[in-house]
Write a structure and sequence with these properties.
Blueprint lengths: L8 H14 L10 H15 L13 H18 L1
Helix pairs in contact: 1-2, 1-3, 2-3
Amino acid sequence: MITIQGLTEQEVQEVCQKVATNHRNKAFSYFSAEDIEQQAWVIILEKIGEFNNDRTKADNQKQSLENWLNTIVHRRLAN
């Protein structure tokens, strides 16, 4: 169960799925789109507990989470 203060579990899952799908079609070496999406999920699940929503506005937590996860996933996939 993934919980973040101010967001429902469903909202968090939607954001995670969107982020994983966003990176699906990016070219990283010889990996397939499915490989990239699965690796994005691994990164998301490893890092989501580190998200600090204290620094976000209450009305924008979902977008803040999405931006933060996109940055984390992009950087990890690039390295």
